[in-house]
Amino acid sequence: MRALVVHPQPEALGELTEILSSRELVVDTARSATEALNRSSGADYAVLVTNHQPPELDGIDLVERVRRYLPEVLAVVMGGASLADTPTNGAGQVFRFIARPEDRRQLAGIINEALKLVRLEREQRELVRRLRGDQEKLMRREKLLDTVVRERTREVVEAYDKLKAANRQALLGLAEAIEAKDAYTKGHCARVAAYSLELARVAGYPAEGMEALEFSAFLHDIGKIGIRDSVLLKPAALTDDEWLHMKRHPVIGYEIASKIEILRPTMSCIRNHHERWDGTGYPDGLKGEEIPLSARIVALTDAFDAMATDRPYKKALSPPECHEALRRQAGKMFDPGLVELFIENHVDDLFRTEEEQSNTTSSGG
Ligand SMILES: [Fe+2]
Question: Within a 10 A sphere around the Cβ of 9, how many other Cβ atoms?
């Protein structure tokens, strides 16, 4: 560290330099305030020792001026006993006053004390600087981590969405593959799915089950993959044996769905979509609310779409005829509550133009 000693007399400067110089402290000297200020502007002094009245300036004024360059400098002012007792404004900036010239010998001790203080302050500043640096580093790291996590999350969500979309395409493609065998059923699965979702909505079906219901409706006849074409596509009435074979499709579909993870939630609907409310359906002969709600919904919408579209063996029924047929089968084939919800909420308007809908309404359907 460096000290600056200011005194007009060369002998006093020599004496002070001798007292103060040590391994730790290099001493510079100045004989006037002007010289002291010149030196201070270019050097990093830890300590300033000045006599009470160097030429040109009051000692305390000099301290004030030097501290503009070196705000941390520890200043010791010698002589001027009265100053120590009646400090002026600038006196607060002075570390220690030495009252009488003959007390100079105390200077070594005072300066040692001052140097300890300077070291302590410097250490403290260094610590604060390091801590601040560490904190900034930590904050930067945290921010980076946050960005990385957000980015990864987005990627995972995107990948999941893509996978889901791909699964959906594959499943719906499967349903369409079954439909493709028979031109007359084209679009049937998509319509059954749409009617089912709408009927489920008005029936208060749980939101988290909607996706499974959509798949169930789309794929309810997936078991037809296992039905012989000679039976599936037979243009005439089926024999008893052929009917028995045909009636296996819900169980075949159920078995297919049980082997595909994503189709597990659709198993019960696929198996039971030919059950009847009165218990005379197949394959399990379930009755009323024993039949899963999803299967009751699909039983109704599947039958409705068959009535409402042209088939090779019959023309489409008009909307009022469809409603009449549904009501006739309420409590027999279909859940009567669902039949009413279907008709009251105009679920069947989904695939009708506005004109067709107004015709339906005016004809009393
Ligand atoms: Fe079926």
Answer: 11
Answer for the pair 49, 78: CB distance below 8 angstroms, yes or no: yes
Residue corresponding to tokens 């068959």? 306
Q: Ligand 1 centroid vs 48 CA: distance in angstroms?
A: 102
Q: What does pTM read for this prediction? A: 0.61
Average pLDDT, the chain: 88
Listed residues: CB within 5 A of ion ligand 1: 221
Measuring CA to CA, which residue among 287, 286, 323 is closest to residue 307? 323
* Phi and psi, residue 48, nearest 5°: -125, 125
Q: How far does residue 342's CA lie from ligand 1's centre (Å)? A: 20
Contact 7, 50 (CB under 8 A): yes
Beta bridge partners of 6: 30, 50
The number of angstroms, rounded, from the C-alpha of 6 to the middle of its chain's C-alpha atoms is 66
* Residue length of the chain: 365
Ligand 1 centre distance from Cα of residue 353 (Å): 28
Centroid of ligand 1 to alpha carbon of 325 (angstroms):
19
Contact 191, 351 (CB under 8 A): yes
Mean pLDDT of 127-151: 94
| Span from the CA of 250 to the centroid of ligand 1 (angstroms) | 6
Identified catalytic residue from 224, 247, 259, 332: 224
- Report pLDDT for 353: 72
Residue 224 falls in the annotated catalytic set: yes
What residues contact residue 283 under an 8 Å CB cut-off, 6+ apart? 247, 248, 250, 251, 271, 272, 274
Of 263, 271, 260, the residue nearest 298 (C-alpha): 271
Residue 352 pLDDT exceeds 60:
yes
DSSP H helices in the chain? 10-20, 33-42, 59-69, 81-85, 107-180, 188-202, 210-219, 229-232, 240-246, 249-258, 267-272, 293-308, 319-329, 336-344, 354-362
Using the predicted structure, report yes or no on whether residue 93 has a pLDDT greater than 80: no
